[in-house]
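Sanity check

After download, print the first record. It should look like this:
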Amino acid sequence: MLTTLLSFAFVLGLLVFVHELGHFVTAKMVGIKVERFSLGFPPRAFGFQRGDTDYCVSWLPLGGYVKMAGMIDESLDDSLTGAPWEFASKPVWQRVIVISAGSIMNFVTATVIYAGIVYVTGIGDQPVGALVNDTLPDTPAATAGLISGDIIVAIDGDSITMAEELIGIVNSNAGNELLFRWKRDGQDYESTIIPKLDSVSSVGLIGIRVGTEVLYRDAGLLESIQFGCLNTYKFIVLTADALKQILSGNESLRDSVGGPVIIAKLAGESARHGFQSLLAFTAFISLNLGFFNLLPFPVLDGGHLVILLIEGVMRKPVPLKARIFIQKLGMLFLLALMVFILINDFTRLDRFNF
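Expected structure tokens:
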């Protein structure tokens, strides 16, 4: 439990901080007065005042915010004076930069993490066998002596370099003897295994879960950065596709969406696999946070960008009453969504382990 809580605090704290830091730094750069920089949502727990800004930690650890003067946000503060340091007084292009900066920082954070992992561990781009991740009890594989961590390198004398090759051979050879050869701690082992016909899938199975074992090579700084950028792009595309599947009804919202409880449990599981695994999970959540904040929905950064786009086209501000009404509707919907996600998280707890 302690590992789960600490991991969750690390992931959420880091990602909220870098997101809000993006808003904060760009706001200061264009001359917008920042009234509060908060990790967490009110009520305020503790902090300090420096210059015009109150830097604080708040009690609800579900996000954070940067309160800028003259911006209609979750606070619904409509006290606009027209002062030059207010958000509303700045040109549209500057406000677009400030609003976009949070998500951009999340994307940059993910890229840096992915690049850093590759720079330290290298790039695994040469498959060398099928890695046994788990062996099920009372199965042909268990009887033959295969255990987690073994690397299967050949079947009936044919080299195996990828998990897909092994799966194809096993699935199509139910009832047939196959000579498996594998490596364990540098030692060679072999045994005859007969795949068992599965009555449900009608294919041969031996009772293992496998992945592909790859050989790592050193990566330079430039190649690591390129890998980080490519990985970030791939995950953004996958996230967009997942959202498309949900909106089209092909995927269940209940099964596809996870809130703070599920994130905490997954963070704990990642941490138990090592700090590198926790960092990779942090990068993944960072991408999701950046992506979903850019959705064109009130309260989110994407909703503010839509209003700025309308203002840019109309060449005049959206009426104040309309902006406040939009924010209220967005907040009500967001609160309802948060309640749904929290309830959904607790109903799915039995699928995850501490």
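If your output differs, re-run the checksum step. Summary of this record's structure: The chain has a mean pLDDT of 89.
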